[in-house]
Design goal:
Radius of gyration: 16 Å
Family: Belongs to the XseB family.
Number of strands: 0
GO molecular function: exodeoxyribonuclease VII activity
Strand content: under 5%
Order of helices and strands: HH
EC number: 3.1.11.6
Organism: Campylobacter porcelli
Keywords: Coiled coil, Cytoplasm, Exonuclease, Hydrolase, Nuclease
Number of helices: 2
Length: 62
C-alpha cells in the first residue's frame, strides 16, 4: 500500500530533525539525505498528479 502525502511530509520532517543531530556520522547523514530526497521527489510527484487531476476536472466541467 502506498503512503499518503501527509505521511511522506511527516517522514521528511523527522529526517530533517535527525540531520540536525550533532552526533550523526557522515555516513548516516548521507543516508538520511538520500532518503529525504527520495521522499521529497515522491511528494512532489503526488502534488503534480493532484494538480493535473484538478486541471482535468476543471476542463471537464467547462
Amino acid at each position: 500500500m502506498s503512503e499518503n502525502f501527509e505521511s511522506k511530509i511527516e517522514k521528511i520532517e523527522k529526517l530533517l530533525e535527525s540531520l540536525n543531530d550533532e552526533n550523526l556520522t557522515l555516513s548516516d547523514s548521507v543516508k538520511l539525505y538520500k532518503d529525504g530526497l527520495k521522499l521529497v521527489n515522491e511528494a512532489r510527484a503526488m502534488l503534480e498528479n493532484a494538480k493535473l487531476e484538478i486541471t482535468q476536472i476543471g476542463e471537464d466541467s467547462e
